[in-house]
Specification:
The complex is a heterotrimer of chains A (290), B (313) and C (368).
Chain A (H helix, E strand, L loop, with lengths): L24 H26 L20 H9 L2 H33 L3 H10 L5 H15 L5 H25 L4 H9 L3 H12 L1 H17 L2 H6 L7 H4 L11 H21 L4 H5 L7
Helix pairs in contact in A: 1-12, 2-12, 3-6, 3-9, 6-9, 7-8, 9-12
Chain B lengths: L1 H13 L2 H12 L1 H27 L17 H7 L2 H32 L6 H8 L7 H12 L5 H10 L13 H27 L3 H9 L4 H28 L4 H6 L11 H11 L3 H31 L1
Helix pairs in contact in B: 4-14, 5-9, 5-11, 5-13, 7-9, 9-11, 11-14, 13-14
Chain C lengths: L3 E10 L2 E11 L4 E5 L6 H9 L6 E6 L2 E2 L10 E4 L11 H11 L4 H15 L14 H13 L5 E5 L7 H18 L2 E6 L2 H7 L2 E6 L2 E6 L1 H6 L4 H6 L6 E8 L6 E4 L6 E2 L2 H4 L8 E6 L4 E3 L9 E7 L2 E4 L3 E8 L2 E8 L9 E7 L4 E4 L9
Parallel strand pairs in C: 3-8, 3-9, 6-7, 7-8
Antiparallel strand pairs in C: 1-2, 1-4, 4-5, 9-10, 11-12, 11-14, 12-13, 14-21, 15-20, 16-20, 17-18, 18-19
The chains are: A mainly alpha (290), B mainly alpha (313), C alpha+beta (368).
């Protein structure tokens, strides 16, 4: 396959004298610059988390500390209750993900196989994704205060379930559409009820899709800030809300903030990179196959 | 034949009449039973709260003052006549437009750069998508660290570059705050555009370019006549989704500038949050959020209709 | 085992009327083939019998029961699908026994039936494998095995051989025919391939655009088609259709083919049935009824033609020659070693005793 065949019109203009187009250096310069742009802040944050506090006041800035320390991690996890935030985040995210994946898969199957509720119902579910969070979280806060769900993990779990439901439904909808019905038909004729055909044939077949949807739901819950900010307080606070404590920094907190950030980043980045095959489907609500 | 009848008789005997009835009923209503839990959840945590807040719009909801007195349109007028509210709306629009435009341009460039395979492409891909999985709060935190004054690396590096001292208050001075916010948003969400546009580019069959090469069309012309039109649905999709997320900007504002200096970096969401949760003017905040909701709904229906049209073309 | 009766069946998908009023009786133990071009509704009809589609109007009886509202699992039918529909996450053995486990049959009984079916189909050695490890032919056997173990009263086949290559298809055709001889259960088989229909069926149901065009044994449909559509659908290569008019005086009818030099006289037996002089008709002749001239003069009811060969299509065992009668093209069947060349003029004998005659307007047969 000649090089000029694929997506010819990238960055560089064709050199008129030559018959073949060389891959332009321009593209690699651009990519390289962007990679530095992406990695720079992450590197700086990591470095900050292991610098001893004195280094913060250094001019020029310390690019790599001579005496790295874990002091900030310990402070962040314990003094600032980062560990409790992680625990709450884990519990809430896993619960909400499981619930969302289950309810979402059920709903997606119904949409994919039976076109339940026609275009209107499915559009309504999809459009939930685009509601401004402030419009929802305000009344939910008031309601939770009234019924005693404020600052509970349970309250946050069901809020997150509804919050991640549209994406789960739409990813699974696209997935089910791609699975041929004949195996479910065979199961129906063989002796299954509709539920059995769904649960024993369709769901195992859809397992990769369910896992991908679950990964993205988890990441969404793990990184969510606004709902957690409003709906939790001293007991059920999640990891992103712990960063509130570092506001208005007075120097001493840079390390703790960075340390906690590094701890928070690791799982979601790892999961995201692993699931990147399904990324496009997740980002576009399944409108496009990944 | 008798064996079949035997089995069936045995089956009929085994199944209690009641459980058969349930089984038949659930088969018949299967599709509705499947969507019921989801609909129930959405009704409980989306529809009901919205209806409730609609009522709150017209009363004076206060935890201290008992009884919720009906106040007509007062809450709305308080929002509409608040200059901060109007500024926050304008800022939201401007920031969203700037963010989405820059992200689109950079994302397209990245997609074009990445569409051809090269050694290490997989690794580059994995690195490029990292920002998408980071909490926006942490993104804000990271950029705050970079941009801080006086000990941040940004000012230092700029100073080295320009050979004079640079003391820009990225997080405390206008207009530098806007750059800071745009920078952090672009950092996080350009990969979003990139991923979608790349998917669009790779789905264009290469033989279209081969055919056009034979016809003598290459380079910029092929980009304009082949790539762009075929990419158009993806472009619309990417911009629609990104825009609808961009207008909610809150987390990075909270961490980086807390709305400052003064109220210069109040986006609509942040403004309403402040009104509702720091000033506890709950009814006013609710009224404001309903206005935002209506505006968003209008934008959504416009974009989605446009998007659907683009997809069917 | 059971018979199937269908009365006034209609199926609509929204605005699309897929099945338009079917009345059909399928006898107990018969091998019935539903055949027709794509979109004629044969698969839809099969699926309504299975219960996988609801019907818009009409009734379906299996045995003596009306099954309209019965779930597929309660109808005691088994189905073999075009894409085999094997459960990818189960082994061959589990695949075959799935239906029996779903009905909570005793383990020993399940094993017994699975072993017998596997022996019958020669797939016992595949038990531990997964569908993705099997060839197309093996998968199809497993799919058939899954149907057999159910010991249903009706077998349904939805184009089961369409995904197999030609050679495998021939092989599996014989297998299925043999299967029917062995277990003699009612079988309803859908295909678009007229060869499958002709070789497998006790009775053929030829469908077009949601309606039944003709029902009968393969011989009946082949030799006495009731319409041009049936005549053209069965038989390969297709029957040649020559447009023309009825000419001639009382009792001595001939067909003047458009553009031909002289009319073709109909044999007396046929002539008696054709009444209206001047009526526009289509004369149908199958290639095997137009052969190289033999003997000094053509036989009774046959006519000798001088034909200029336009195209030759050798198939190994026979060669087909395209030539013109008047303004129409026709196909003659020659011996494989016939030394004709394109452009040559040869002598052919057309056997008008076996000709079909269709009204040019209604396309219905005038002779039968």
């Amino acid at each position: 396959m000649s090089q000029k065949a694929i997506a010819g019109p990238a960055g560089t203009p064709p050199k008129r004298r030559r018959r073949r187009r060389r891959p332009g250096i321009g593209r690699f310069v651009f990519l390289g610059a962007f990679l530095i742009f992406v990695l720079g802040p992450l590197y700086w944050m990591f470095i900050t988390s292991i610098k001893p506090s004195d280094d913060y006041l250094a001019v020029p800035p310390v690019w790599f500390p001579s005496h790295p320390t874990l002091v900030h991690y310990i402070a962040a996890l314990f003094a600032y209750r980062g560990l409790q935030g992680i625990a709450n985040s884990l519990i809430v995210s896993i619960s909400a993900t499981a619930l969302s994946a289950f309810v979402g898969t059920l709903m997606a199957y119904s949409f994919a196989r039976f076109e339940t509720g026609g275009k209107h119902l499915s559009f309504w579910v999809l459009s939930q994704r685009f509601l401004p969070p402030i419009a929802i979280v305000l009344p939910v806060f008031l309601i939770y205060r009234t019924v005693g769900l404020h600052d509970t993990r349970f309250g946050l779990v069901i809020a997150y379930t509804v919050f991640t439901l549209p994406v789960t439904v739409w990813m699974m909808f696209a997935y089910f559409k791609g699975v041929p019905r004949s195996m479910e038909d065979a199961a129906l004729v063989d002796g299954c009820t509709r539920w059995e055909a769904f649960w024993r044939v369709a769901v195992p077949l859809a397992a990769p899709g369910i896992i991908a949807a679950a990964v993205f739901a988890f990441i969404a819950c793990w990184t969510e800030f606004f709902f957690a900010l409003v709906l939790t307080s001293r007991n059920a606070f999640t990891l992103p809300t712990v960063f509130r404590a570092f506001l208005g920094f007075q120097g001493a907190q840079y390390g703790e903030a960075s340390a906690l950030a590094v701890v928070s980043l690791a799982p979601s980045i790892a999961l995201g990179v692993l699931a990147q095959r399904h990324l496009v489907r997740g980002l576009t609500l399944g409108a496009v196959r990944g | 034949m008798s064996r079949v009848a035997e089995v069936r008789r045995r089956e009929a005997g085994l199944m209690a009449g009641f459980s058969t009835a349930i089984s038949l009923w659930s088969d018949r209503h299967f599709k509705w039973l499947l969507v019921a839990p989801g609909i129930g959840l959405i009704l409980a945590l989306s529809v009901y709260p919205l209806l409730f807040s609609f009522w709150v719009n017209f009363v004076n909801y206060d935890f201290q003052i008992p009884g919720h007195a009906f106040v007509g349109l007062k809450n709305f007028s308080q929002v509409v006549f608040d200059p901060v509210a109007r500024w926050s709306l304008a800022l939201t629009v401007m920031l969203s437009a700037a963010n989405v435009t820059i992200e689109f341009a950079l994302g397209l460039g990245l997609a074009l750069a990445m569409v051809r395979p090269f050694p290490g492409r997989g690794l580059v891909m994995s690195i490029l998508i990292i920002p998408l999985f980071i909490s926006p709060v942490i993104v804000g935190q990271a950029w705050a660290l970079l941009l801080q004054r006086p000990f941040g690396p940004t000012n230092y590096l700029l100073g080295q570059l320009l050979r004079r001292e640079v003391t820009i208050g990225w997080l405390s001075e206008s207009p530098w705050v806007y750059f800071a916010l745009i920078l952090s948003d672009v950092w996080q969400w350009t990969p979003f555009m990139f991923v979608i546009l790349l998917a669009g580019l790779t789905s264009i069959p290469p033989n279209l370019y081969e055919a056009s090469e034979l016809d003598g069309i290459g380079g910029w012309l092929a980009f304009r006549l082949i790539t762009l039109p075929l990419l158009a649905p993806m472009i619309t999709l990417a911009i629609t989704f990104r825009l609808l997320d961009a207008i909610r900007l809150f987390d990075t504002i909270f961490i980086m500038t807390a709305g400052g200096p003064g109220t210069k970096t109040y986006t609509s969401s942040f403004y309403l949050y402040t009104v509702g949760f720091t000033q506890f003017h709950l009814s006013q905040a609710t009224a404001g959020s309903w206005i935002l909701l209506v505006l968003t709904a209008a934008l959504v229906s416009f974009l989605v209709r446009h998007l659907l049209k683009a997809e069917t073309v | 085992m059971a018979d199937v009766r269908i009365r006034g069946l209609h199926k609509r998908f929204g605005g699309f009327h897929a099945v338009r009023g079917i009345d059909l009786d399928i006898a107990d133990g018969d091998f019935t083939v539903l055949v027709g071009p794509s979109g004629c509704g044969k698969s839809t009809l099969l699926r309504t019998i299975a219960g996988l589609e609801d019907i818009s109007e009409g009734e379906i009886f299996i045995g003596d029961e009306i099954v309209n509202d019965m779930r597929p699992r309660d109808r005691d039918v088994a189905m073999v699908f075009q894409d085999y529909a094997l459960y990818p996450h189960m082994t061959v053995e589990k695949n075959i026994g799935f239906g029996l486990r779903a009905r909570k049959m005793a383990r020993s009984e399940i094993d017994d039936r699975v072993n017998r079916a596997s022996a019958m189909l020669g797939i016992a050695q595949l038990y531990g494998r997964f569908p993705r490890q099997l060839s197309g032919g093996q998968r199809q056997r497993v799919a058939i095995g899954r149907a057999i173990v159910r010991e249903p009263r009706i077998f349904l086949f939805d184009e089961p051989l369409s995904n197999l290559d030609a050679q495998l298809r021939d092989e599996m055709r014989w297998e299925i025919k043999r299967l029917h001889r062995e277990i003699s259960t009612t079988m309803i088989y859908v295909t678009h391939d007229q060869i499958e229909a002709m070789t497998l069926a006790d009775r053929i149901v030829l469908m077009r655009e949601g309606r039944i065009e003709q029902v009968g044994t393969p011989a009946e449909l082949f030799e006495r088609p009731i319409s041009r559509f049936v005549a053209g659908f069965l038989g390969s290569p297709k029957m040649s259709f020559l447009p023309g008019r009825v000419v001639g005086s009382e009792g001595v009818a001939a067909i003047a083919i458009d553009g031909a030099a002289f009319p073709l006289p109909l044999p007396t037996a046929h002539a008696a049935r054709v009444s209206t002089a001047g009526a526009r008709v289509l004369l149908g002749l199958r290639p095997e009824h137009i052969v190289r001239a033999q003997g000094a003069s053509p036989g009774e009811g046959m006519i000798r033609l001088d034909a200029r060969v336009e195209l030759l299509q050798p198939t190994g065992s026979r060669t087909f020659a395209t030539f013109r009668i008047g303004s129409a093209s026709a196909l003659a069947e020659l011996q494989a070693h016939d030394v004709s060349n394109p452009g040559e003029t040869i002598q052919l004998d057309a056997n008008l005793n076996r000709a079909s005659l269709f009204d040019a307007e209604t396309e219905l047969a005038l002779l039968s």
